[in-house]
């Protein structure tokens, strides 16, 4: 255990040596075992107390004996900086005056409700009624719930065999809910969707894992991924032992996706003996926030068709578009409008209830729409889904609701639209304000967030800061982000966690803090950045 | 697609050739594409209509190109027989008179609420209040909910940062809920439990996968598993590319677990160059239903300690014990009472909200308690948990509730106890009735279900039946189970799906149909068995 404490402490101490804020407090936080034991942490107090350590232990499992694929996997969105933030947050409870800030603001993760976004009332009403169905028999319920939420709950229960929301469902999800999702996709795209193509999942992540598991046999199987990318892709490719084949988005053209770059990287990978199995596209982009133009999407579909690649379309931000000149188009719609059907292209679209205007991250719902695979391959996907039995039913219900929300004339419609538009227009405002603030900072350039939930500014770091990061054995952008956290309480993720063009440095910052917090965030960020640049100016 | 239809049809046709029931109807169901298209199925109607087939397609993904580990994986609990049952069920809706039964009774899976078991009211009340927290501000709520469910909901919301049940939680689950679970474990075992040892999961399955992923690097890594076993183990070992090292439970001594057998199999595996990493024990047993004696558990713990094995303790049926002479003891309690602490033994206990008296399968909640691993190894477990962000919050809440149910004096206490004891005593009765009925059948012997939710009778099949199965290219027990389904509508899982001593044949049957259905099930089963034996008597 001491090894861990020492490692974590080193980072904090490295920082305090150079920084003037509250040095003593941080030193004591970092170096005192007793402080660490009394605060929440990842590790067991029993293991702390017994002093178990891989070097001294006779236990059978050591790092060396673990699956090397697990060791290789990285997931920066919940990495070291978040761990430091959690310890600071705990310490703030009892040591309010010890820090130059009074709260930790988590801009590291697309988790809207953790920052005060309220859930959509209609969705939660339906969920409550389906959770405790006895409510539906009580007359008092009519005073507490909208009439369409009561109707909807009855309709949903009628779709579930025996009205049993506590039963495992079909491995792909409850058929009637998949019908609703398919109808929602049809309404969105103007092309048919088949409920039997829907595999409901606990969020989008398990769907991505499932496809990686299916497609990757060894490191000779490659998946084309955007750089920068959401680290779920690099993590799941590492866990399944495949090769991430990078294609670089062009920051100068607003994170443009060039077919020539795809071709170049595909050929390069093939020349190394890698069989490229799939192309992953995140649209709207994460962490990059761009929304692809339809013409660009057509080229991508043609490229996949021509090169025999599965198109893995991460479309979880489909409701998050903030600029009037861009519009979301699903890849399935684009493929079908090009005339490509089931026999022409393998396409998987991932959707999640964690994003959009609803932001129901904690409910872990989502689906993948799987088209263009032969029946024997689909049978294998079904089998893998079956091993985990089914995704959670609350998530399944919510996934059906977001694809079939209240309609004009429904009791909830007006309040639903007000809640939805309130959230989306506020997100658009926040994105704009933060982007403008970032672009005012010395050495920082930031593309606009056309969609999704993030800004991904580029920071030109002074040579002295890069040198300081090197001596602290940390990536320069991680160095910047740790300093930002310790000075302001703002948590962002270093660009190195998403990969980036070598020699460039970025961070990902969500646009999710509530509007009334944005001015303070802009002030703190601006002040910190100025002082950081002053400190390390060449 | 035609290949699939043909395959499925073959089984049905093989059957109808030998069987007198409704031959024409089954033939038409099996061979008519149009019937299949109009009924729910695994496969897309679009792929059906386009006639896509792996042999004719130019699509990039074929069975040959898939990860061979996926192809190797099997999961019989939702295998071929369940698919046939689903088609029969659909066909019954419009063709009631076509079959010698009027409903499908799913005894294939431990899914109590799908068979009419009602959820525990208190748990659902709390869940509804946490789903739609605005209810807590309404005075009418007090007329609809028990006062302790309202109190509990408030307490739970206070444990969640920002009361945000729609936010991702800590990757291990909400700290306050883990506190409640740890307290529940302490109360159960009389030994300390640390909330930082708890990793909350979407049911037990993802926890088992996570540990397999960690421990298995290649087919040279082995996991000792009971035979018969719950196929999650064989499936996850196959998916992660390891070797299942079997140890056989002794049917003659009530599915006894002999240390000599463990030793023999361990040595045998080692002699083949396999590094055995862990021992999986399912207690109470699935599919076997035995409850281990404490003395036996002590031997198992000592064996793991001595041989340097991780003990993977599947304890999801810990609340399901039906006989007065047996009691559940957690392996952690047994290890601690032997004086083994954190430094002595690596132990993972899996728990699920899908089982017990609550049977909340659809909520997908559970946890694993991870003890005895070094901090650097635990950091890797945490990282893998983080890649999927967190388990669903409703499942987390329920997992905390089942470990801290209402106490004497609480408003709900009496009704809670009545519901709980009603379910458990009824399950005990059903287990006994079914076991006695099975033991009366010619050539069938069945150990009692001391715990869990299953009976696993051994059937001595006549040689003629075995020959008939062979010519139908199916395992003899699968042949029996398909015949049972087609004659009675009862769905059970062939023993071959769980593995068994070669040359013996079994099936797994849940004890979950509601009490009023049991007499009819016994009658149908008895009648079928008699006619089957008469047909194939040597």
TrEMBL record, chains A, B:
<comment type="pathway">
    <text>Amino-acid degradation; L-alanine degradation via transaminase pathway; pyruvate from L-alanine: step 1/1.</text>
</comment>
<keyword id="KW-0175">Coiled coil</keyword>
<dbReference type="GO" id="GO:0004021">
    <property type="term" value="F:L-alanine:2-oxoglutarate aminotransferase activity"/>
</dbReference>
<comment type="pathway">
    <text>Photosynthesis; C4 acid pathway.</text>
</comment>
<comment type="subunit">
    <text>Homodimer.</text>
</comment>
<protein>
    <recommendedName>
        <fullName>alanine transaminase</fullName>
        <ecNumber>2.6.1.2</ecNumber>
    </recommendedName>
</protein>
<dbReference type="InterPro" id="IPR015424">
    <property type="entry name" value="PyrdxlP-dep_Trfase"/>
</dbReference>
<dbReference type="InterPro" id="IPR045088">
    <property type="entry name" value="ALAT1/2-like"/>
</dbReference>
<dbReference type="InterPro" id="IPR004839">
    <property type="entry name" value="Aminotransferase_I/II_large"/>
</dbReference>
<dbReference type="InterPro" id="IPR015422">
    <property type="entry name" value="PyrdxlP-dep_Trfase_small"/>
</dbReference>
<keyword id="KW-0032">Aminotransferase</keyword>
<dbReference type="Pfam" id="PF00155">
    <property type="entry name" value="Aminotran_1_2"/>
</dbReference>
<keyword id="KW-0663">Pyridoxal phosphate</keyword>
<dbReference type="InterPro" id="IPR015421">
    <property type="entry name" value="PyrdxlP-dep_Trfase_major"/>
</dbReference>
<feature type="coiled-coil region">
    <location>
        <begin position="417"/>
        <end position="444"/>
    </location>
</feature>
<feature type="domain" description="Aminotransferase class I/classII large">
    <location>
        <begin position="164"/>
        <end position="518"/>
    </location>
</feature>
<comment type="similarity">
    <text>Belongs to the class-I pyridoxal-phosphate-dependent aminotransferase family. Alanine aminotransferase subfamily.</text>
</comment>
<keyword id="KW-0808">Transferase</keyword>
